[in-house]
Design a protein that fits this description.
The chain has 180 residues and is an alpha/beta fold. 40% of the residues lie in helices and 12% in strands. It has a single domain, classed as Protein tyrosine phosphatase superfamily (Protein-Tyrosine Phosphatase, Chain A).
């Protein structure tokens, strides 16, 4: 492929949450009725060209997963349910993100659209990982990054993040003691 499309196109509503580490967007190719295969392929090309090492889908369905596999873009699928208790899934997402980000990986997290659920997860991660000290601050930061207020569904995810156990701090070098 040559010309201006050789590097692909960024996913719609692409936003950095943590510069060069964690980004959010709508699903590559667009959401349900607006989904276009050609656009999805162009956006996956762009993600690979930008050095993204993983895509995390929060969709309840396996949409796009075969396309990521076909294009050689590693992915993980966390089925974030629209209703019910999401604590276990949130904890799994946060731990996974923490490992990826602290390892220097570049990750994109998406749902169908860049709505309250994916922004709530991103703000929740910032709070859970102690990158920001409070739920209101995490919410405000994400609202500024995406350019509009976060609704109740997103705010609920941020509140849940505050209830989850934070990541284990790394062990200090030389602090391990040998058994007696």
């Amino acid at each position: 492929m040559r010309g201006k499309w050789a590097a692909g196109i960024p996913p719609r509503n692409f936003t950095w949450v943590i510069r060069d580490r964690l980004a959010i967007s709508e699903r590559p190719g667009g959401f349900a009725p607006n989904h276009r295969r050609v656009r999805r392929n162009e956006e996956i090309i762009w993600l690979r060209a930008q050095g993204f090492s993983r895509v995390a889908s929060l969709l309840p369905s396996p949409h796009n997963l075969a396309a990521y596999e076909e294009k050689g873009l590693p992915f993980v699928h966390f089925q974030l349910p629209a209703t019910g208790d999401v604590r276990a899934v949130l904890e799994e997402v946060f731990h996974w993100l923490h490992v990826q980000i602290t390892s220097g990986e570049r990750v994109l997290v998406h749902q169908d659209e860049l709505g309250d659920r994916v922004t709530g997860v991103a703000a929740g991660y910032l709070l859970w990982s102690a990158r920001l000290p409070s739920a209101p601050q995490a919410t405000t930061v994400l609202e500024r990054q995406i350019g509009h207020p976060m609704g109740p569904a997103g705010r609920e995810l941020v509140a849940l993040a505050a209830e989850l156990a934070p990541p284990e701090p790394p062990a200090a070098a030389g602090s391990a003691r040998a058994p007696a």
